[in-house]
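Feature request disguised as a bug report, sorry. It would help if multi-protein outputs had a clear separator. Right now it looks like this:
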Amino acid sequence: MRSGKPGFPLPRHRHGRRLLAQPHRTGRLFRVFFRRDKGGVVDVDLKLVEGLATTVLESGFPDDGREGRSVVIRAAEHGSLVVAAHPSSCVRTTWCPAFYQPTKQHEDDNNDGGGAAAATLPRHPNLVDPTGAGNAFLGGFAIGLQEISDPVRAARYGTVAAGFALEQLGLPVLGEDPRSGEEVWNGCGAFRRLEEYESRLERNA
């Protein structure tokens, strides 16, 4: 995709498993970053996801020197990955963590020490149902990309949108702040939550 003009739906990191039965290079690439532990839990090697996304970027788009070539991968509880090319031929890899992070205890339980993250829903108290979070991410991402033409910041828009979708069964509750008249979802304005998320990223940088 180019900034402002998504060329195809954003892939999810597990969708590659659909390609594994096909005897071509893409299937082999996807196979290498999935493995099962003895309990049958699928682990995801995030570094290999980065490598695959970079390969897709470099092989799937012509390098015509213009800014805007990028690949974005949704990665569920791991957040999203943005791999973007710049005019200097530099490829930048950026992870946008999920809005709701695991509790410390749960994070320790899932850490196998091998650089891979267990594919389970983090037990954050605000997480109710993941249904629709991926689609909410896509909507937020599309709006962000249209407004600012920056895939990394657009992914932050998508992250915030996905966070709202996780907080209840069904749709978030749309309302209005009685003091400011601002549109709110589940009692919170989207841009206020975006500011909160970006402030958190700055503190953890």
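(second protein starts here, but nothing in the output says so)
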Amino acid sequence: MDPLSISASIVALVQLTGMVIEYLHGVKGASEDRQNILSELTSVSSMLFILQDRVDQQEDSWPLTLKLLNGSEGLLAQLRTSLGILLSKLSPVKGLKKGEIKEILNIIERQKALLTLARQNDHIALSTAIKDGVQTLIRKVDDISKDKAYMQMRE
């Protein structure tokens, strides 16, 4: 998977989230449900910006997590579908029913939780790599100490 497609997917999601947020800001006398949706989407938007920053920082190595997020049935595709459904139901003609609001909020909350877990997974991989690097350094320091002790004994 090329970096451009991951980045493009995230940018598209940020734009779609922004469209929904903009629409919700424009609704006068927005109900508590719409305020809840707005709050949830603002949080998702922040997470997408963080994810985009993570993607931009990568050069040649793409963590498996990022590749899985952008799969054809990955989390980014699921989030795009959820936001598209939400945007279509926000039109004044269709309107949102109480049960639909709760269902959409639950779906978006789950997707946000999965984004959080994906970010944590990258942190775990980084921690493991750091641990491995430290263990290698410890072995090398031990070898140097042994070599130094051997050389001192020879003198």
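Even a blank line would do. Unrelated, but nice: Helices lie at 3-26, 32-57, 64-69, 75-89, 98-154.
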